[in-house]
Amino acid sequence: MNRLATTALLLSLAASSALGQAIPDRPEKLTYSPIAFEVPQAKEAKALLKNEVPAYLVSDPEGIPLVKITVWWRGGASQEPEGKAGLAGLFGSQLAVGGTRTRDAAVMEDRLEALAATLSSSCGPTSGSLFLQVQEKDLAEGLDLLMQALTQPAFEKDRLDLAKRSARQALERRNDAVTSIAQLQMPYLLFGEGFFATERTTAASLDSITREDLAAFHAGLLHPANLAVAVSGKFDRKAMVDLLNRTIGAIKAGPAARPSPKVPAPGFARTPGLYVIDKDAPQAMLQWAFPGLRRTDPDWYPAMVMNHVLGGGGFAARLMKKIRSDEGLTYGVRTTLGEGAYWRGDLTGGLQTKNTTVAYALRLALAEMQRLKDEPLSPAELASIKDGLVESFPARWGNRQAIANAFAEEQITGWPEDWWVDYRERVRAVTAAEVRKMAKKLLAPEKMIALAVGRASEIEAGDPDHPGALKDAAPLPLSRVPLRDPLTLKPAP
Description:
Shape: globular
Strand order of the largest sheet: 1-2-6-3-5-4
Mean pLDDT: 91
CATH architecture of the largest domain: 2-Layer Sandwich
Number of domains: 2
CATH class of the largest domain: Alpha Beta
Number of strands: 12
Order of helices and strands: HHEEEHHEEHHHHHEHEEHHEEHHHHHEHE
Radius of gyration: 25 Å
Structural class: alpha+beta
Low-confidence stretches: 1-11
Largest sheet: 6 strands, mixed
Strand content: 15-25%
């Protein structure tokens, strides 16, 4: 018996022994007790620092002597000045590595290495973070280094220039793959021009960014009202709160600092349609999107369950079964329901397939959407999907760092601290009728935007083995979208 088979047998025996049952003749006949799991409580982890910055502390008294601290801030690309697209990304890359006013970058790196500590940072569309990992015995010094980076960044010119060169090289590769082209173009179709989600970095905007721009951006974010802290690892809670109060809790709002404004919601003045970008590639990328919901919408849970039935549930999802397993058109297909932190999210999906089978794959996807609207879910399928969501829920809280960061991120986005407490009960309460209602509400072909990137003539013509041109796949106008120049983002003539 090989090692893999032996391991499988031992696991099976262990499971059967633990459950007090005979070994079944089929794996699907195994039964398990419900997972005992209590949802972590944000209010139990929360400590309010003296400047009212919330800190979420999740300790592991029996763990290894390691502490992880993440300072989160509200604000990112959504707060970039006009003409400075790419500033937030550069800021995020340089905050931890660009040196400080008291220690240059090389000295900082040497000291972090001596402590076997890690300091890193990033900044996205609406938030960013600065992360420290340090041994428990070096916590005070490690936190001091974090505070220097957080409050006194120097943004050294040589480091900034290097980051800008690297960023420019990334811009030059934008059109190398059909996936990256689709990711770049889709926001323009969804949000139009002029919204921060489509204010992408260009060579000109990148070249215009200076150290002074980074400093001004930093001043606008460093405000107690913008911050939240996540702490995990082995530490004494009281001592940690005292240490945080002496450091992060001492941050004050200076004359240039201000809370970041809420991100304005886009107008969603989108034009539904079938769009094609011509790119010489052996396989095409197909993406589609429907207007979705905000997570605070009363219909969020039925919509989430519906999405998992359609394409969000992995191999149990209908699109995966139909388009991959039955038809063999793609390696994988998935749909996602955007959480809509500051504006309505989208219900999106996508797959890669041969250029000639794009139209057929889209027709199959739309047919499954229509079936979801026309036919009630069977009790077995609904139960399977809901069981999957409920049973996978504990993985969201897989370790103490994930728990602390989840609480801090919820704080940053303004969602209730107790949002996840009744998650499983609300999932279990979703009915087949509600799922069908959400399918009818959200999966409206006339509201769909679909984008295919690949050999345009082959995509539009379709597959001779499955007759049907792309223009006939949905009741929407078909048009070509020019490939954008990777450095200027201007559509090619």
